Amino acid sequence: MALRGRHRAGLAITYKLCSLLLSYPDQELLDARVQLSSAVEELPSPSRTALERFCAWWVSEHPLALQQHYVQTFDFDKRCGLYLTFYGEGERRERGSSLLRLKRLYRAAGLPLEGSELPDYLPVMLEFAAAAPSGHGQIVLREHRAALELVRASLRERETPYADVLDAVCDTLGALSATERARAIKLAASGPPHELVGLEPFAPPEVMPSAEARR
What we know:
13 helices
């Protein structure tokens, strides 16, 4: 029981840290870089290894350069966007249903969404995963594993350190199951939503990082 409790606590801290590290580096976050990097050093493996790689860059980077890198990566390159339902549904009506379902799920878990951010924004999902009752957060993340893998592959292709944060998130979910892999391949093979046409490549299956490639 004690081991399971420590494992759950380690997951919660990992998700909280990943949520912060994937957020825009405003002044408050910049001021906390050293503190957050120290917290990473206390995490259990293997997520710690990936996040330590990220923090080595994140802490030493000039604040303005870090902010510019973030905007160029996540705001200007839609293949790396952090709104996970967008990859399968774009701006179609179906996406509205998915967003509403997430909001209801958060509310049912006693963690209603506050603020103006959409519920499929990865830092929000990770914040939920950090605070949700045992297992609920991972269920949400696993439901969106295919989109996570597409974002992860696009970040790896860009050669941005933010790929290490996605590695850490995916490490907590374990190896892709046959069903999850099939979903990821189907999502990649279906091509980008209309809004992403012309931004090839769209994270084809062959560039999805395997467990061996991340080590």
